[in-house]
Amino acid sequence: MSNTPMAANPLTRAVLEIDEYVSGLGWDQPARLFALVDTARLRSQEPALAAQLGLEDESETVGLTPIEQDEIPSGKPLDEFLATIAWPDAVVGCALTVERLMLPPSAEAQVPKGLGEAGLAKWVADHPERQEVRMTVAVLRDGGRESALRLREKDSPTEVLTGPDLVPGLADALAATFAD
């Protein structure tokens, strides 16, 4: 059983479970992609896999089970990679964890004009107010969304911020992996 705090809905619990798992691996990790499957359906249709994942004795009958996917290719931009994904029907949602540098909203007015992508990345990396953040974003086929943000300087399970609209662009990109 994990130390993940009990959350109100299965998607929030899955996001916090993924955040806890990735947190245990430490910082400076590559992006990680997870399929989300209905736990009860997994137990009934794939009992051997459920047993391998330690789910055969779970008392909870509703919920989502995150299953980590193969490593994301490092040489391909994340948006291009996500555009290549098609999920089988058994996958009810997906989640992604990624580490990024963030600036406070007040820094937006300071961005020098005319910077290309590489120049902007360097400017952000050198900015004194930058924060390292790990984002875990999940979406469901039915449109549900949830996110968890963890700052490196406040790396504690009690300091994880959650909400459905924290990283809308990434949630949109993940939702597009379910588009027909």
Top keywords for this entry?
180 residues; alpha+beta; six-stranded antiparallel sheet; 24% strand
Give an overview in words.
The protein is α+β, with helices and mostly antiparallel strands and 180 residues long. The protein is 28% helix and 24% strand. Strands 2-1-3-4-5-6 form a 6-stranded antiparallel beta sheet. Strand 4 and strand 5 form a beta hairpin. The protein starts with 9 loop residues before the first helix and ends in a 5-residue tail after the last helix.
Rg from Cα: 17 Å
Q: Give a short account of the largest sheet.
A: 6 strands, antiparallel
Order of helices and strands: HEHHEHEHEEEH
Fraction in beta strands: 15-25%
pLDDT < 50 runs, ≥5 residues: none
What's the arrangement of secondary structure elements?
Elements: H1 10-24, E1 32-38, H2 39-45, H3 47-52, E2 64-68, H4 78-82, E3 91-102, H5 117-126, E4 131-140, E5 145-151, E6 161-163, H6 168-175
Antiparallel strand pairs: 1-2, 1-3, 3-4, 4-5, 5-6
In short:
The chain has 180 residues and is an alpha+beta fold. The chain has helices at 10-24, 39-45, 47-52, 78-82, 117-126, 168-175; strands spanning 32-38, 64-68, 91-102, 131-140, 145-151, 161-163. It is built from 6 helices and 6 strands.
